[in-house]
Design goal:
This protein has 204 residues and is mainly β. Helices cover 6% and strands 14% of the residues. It has helices at residues 5-13, 29-32; strands at residues 51-54, 87-91, 102-103, 138-142, 147-150, 157-158, 163-164, 180-181, 195-196.
């Protein structure tokens, strides 16, 4: 039996309706389900809801997301270096397809590449793009519990972008010409593109 993150949370939230985005009420398959053991309806198909968990970079080796791919195990709280800057859950359920429970990157649903840039949300205007569902942006729940609305081009993952908000590690990406680019808060508290050989909180 394959268990999803929503089934794991259900005993604590005790309300399936919390997984329905008010702006996408049609994505309610999970909320209407009566299966309390698994919302898996096939080998990799899940009941729809309005949210994805962050499974970007689930390939073996760093960087790693807070929600690993199925059958890969979990991530402990202690492994999350910057909880306030690491995405946990985001608007979803329509891209790349409605019956999926995780966001693995802008490519195919099963893409979990650790390459820089694979976490960048698509910015193409589309009625089925959850990253543009709320006034050309989306809501992101971070690992420390706060939620922030952001446009897709603010949630970057690649050289010169300030690090990767999809990763639990404080990582640098290959291809950065000068030093290493580290995680930063949104809105940025440091100059855009800040790069150094040490994280900003240690830089002098």
């Amino acid at each position: 039996v394959t268990y999803s993150w929503r089934i794991a949370l259900l005993p604590y939230v005790k309300n399936r309706g919390i997984f329905v985005c008010p702006s996408a009420p049609n994505l309610n398959g999970f909320a209407l389900s009566t299966n309390d053991k698994s919302d898996c309806t096939g080998s990799v198909q899940f009941e729809s809801s309005g949210y994805y968990c962050n499974s970007v970079h689930y390939d073996s080796g760093a960087p790693n997301p807070p929600f690993m791919h199925r059958d890969q195990g979990g991530i402990s709280d202690a492994q999350i270096v910057r909880p306030a800057e690491t995405i946990a859950v985001l608007d979803g359920g329509q891209y790349p397809k409605a019956n999926y429970d995780m966001y693995c990157g802008p490519g195919a649903a099963t893409t979990g590449s650790n390459a820089a840039g694979t976490g960048n949300p698509p910015t193409t205007v589309s009625t089925t793009n959850p990253f543009l569902r709320h006034t050309d942006g989306a809501n992101y729940l971070f690992m420390d519990g706060h939620v922030k609305w952001q446009k897709p081009d603010q949630v970057t993952c690649g050289p010169g972008s300030g690090g990767c908000h999809w990763s639990v590690e404080e990582v640098s990406h290959e291809g950065v010409a000068r030093g290493r680019c580290w995680h930063q808060h949104w809105p940025r508290m440091h100059p855009p593109g800040f790069c150094a050989d040490t994280p900003p909180h240690k830089a002098k």
